[in-house]
């Protein structure tokens, strides 16, 4: 039996400084992407735009907001990103022209439901595991108000977005099935890149633990210098992860209470259950493990001798994050 092919549409809202981060990822403006090993730089030239940005994302959003005469607050959503794709099985055997046709069709769907002139960029990535499109727009309503909440709505409206997206795409691609919305899975979507960041931090944690465990009287000075140097990357990376974890704080507050029930449910899953349901449960468990991993990679800082911390801060006096964790 062939694996199901799902139409996938997800939204993310961005308010300020993080906009430049998603722009760097979407537009591939960085030379290296250590935090995302799935990016294959030798294939980046295959990426293509359906809509090219005329200026920086933040600058374009501020321009449109000003022209619309909208008032903003520091916590106003200025950019909405739609991630548009399908499960990998859908793209198997498809040529570049067929892939472009699929994303053009998806772009038409967005244009029918959001003013085309508000779209900042629509770029298709072919240099990762599965083709996908990042489409960013300024959340201006038809009557020129800045209101992402009205456009994306509550859980019910997000479900309607999923319905409409599938109904639009299935006309041309009848094998596509409707994907799950965040409201149906009972969770907000945590991007894959966050899990990749944590995987990298876990490796760094293990290396740091190895250095700490190997400290002896005979090599103390050498190991101290190595650990202080290692902290120059580790502590900023932990600080960056803290920013991500705060973003999903609401999810993690309810996660602990659900973990045992989900683990029990996962144990009881049988072959009779749909693969998609099993994957959804496993995904939830992965998200909760993310929280415990974060506590682990942060906690090791308490094992570092104070004199090594002082050596680290002396090496880079600008780094202040360490005081936050001790």
CATH architecture of the largest domain: 2-Layer Sandwich
As a percent range, the share of helical residues equals 55-70%
**What is the beta-strand fraction?**
5-15%
What summary fits the major beta sheet? 6 strands, mixed
Shape: globular
The name of the CATH topology of the largest domain is BirA Bifunctional Protein, domain 2
Task: Determine the oligomeric state from the structure.
Answer: single chain
What count of helical segments does DSSP give?
13
Provide the succession of SSEs: EHEHEHHEEHHEHHHHHHH
Separation of the first and last Cα atoms: 54 Å
Which segments are poorly predicted (pLDDT under 50) over 5 or more consecutive residues?
Answer: 181-188, 255-278, 318-326
The strands making up the biggest β-sheet line up spatially as 2-4-5-3-1-6
User: For the residues shown, what is the average pLDDT?
Assistant: 79
Radius of gyration: 22 Å
Number of strands: 6
Please write the CATH class name of the largest domain. Alpha Beta
- Structural class by helix and strand composition: alpha+beta
What count of structural domains? 2
């Amino acid at each position: 039996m062939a694996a199901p092919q799902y139409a996938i549409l997800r939204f993310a809202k961005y308010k300020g400084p993080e906009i430049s981060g998603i722009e760097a990822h979407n537009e591939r403006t960085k030379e290296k992407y250590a935090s995302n090993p799935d990016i294959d730089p030798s294939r980046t030239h295959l990426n293509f735009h359906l809509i090219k940005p005329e200026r920086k994302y933040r600058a374009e959003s501020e321009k449109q907001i000003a022209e619309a005469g909208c008032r903003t607050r520091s916590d106003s959503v200025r950019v909405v990103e739609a991630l548009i794709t399908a499960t990998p099985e859908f793209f198997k055997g498809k040529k570049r022209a067929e892939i472009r046709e699929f994303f053009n069709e998806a772009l038409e769907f967005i244009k029918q439901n959001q003013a085309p002139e508000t779209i900042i960029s629509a770029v298709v990535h072919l240099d990762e595991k599965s083709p996908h499109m990042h489409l960013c727009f300024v959340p201006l309503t038809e009557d020129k108000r800045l209101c992402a909440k009205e456009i994306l709505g509550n859980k019910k409206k997000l479900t309607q977005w999923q319905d409409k997206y599938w109904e639009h795409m299935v006309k041309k691609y009848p094998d596509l099935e409707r994907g799950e919305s965040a409201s149906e899975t009972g969770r907000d979507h945590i991007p894959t890149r966050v899990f990749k960041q944590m995987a990298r931090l876990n490796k760094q944690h293990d290396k740091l633990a190895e250095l700490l465990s190997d400290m002896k009287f005979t090599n103390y000075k050498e190991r101290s210098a190595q650990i202080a140097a290692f902290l120059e990357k580790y502590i900023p990376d932990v600080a960056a992860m803290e920013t991500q974890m705060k973003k999903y704080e609401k999810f993690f507050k309810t996660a602990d209470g659900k973990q045992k029930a989900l683990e029990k449910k996962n144990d009881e899953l049988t072959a009779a259950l749909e693969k998609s349901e099993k994957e959804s449960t496993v995904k939830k468990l992965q998200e909760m493990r993310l929280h415990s991993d974060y506590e682990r990679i942060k906690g090791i800082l308490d094992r570092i001798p104070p004199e090594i911390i002082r050596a680290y801060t002396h090496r880079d006096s600008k780094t202040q994050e360490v005081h936050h964790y001790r």
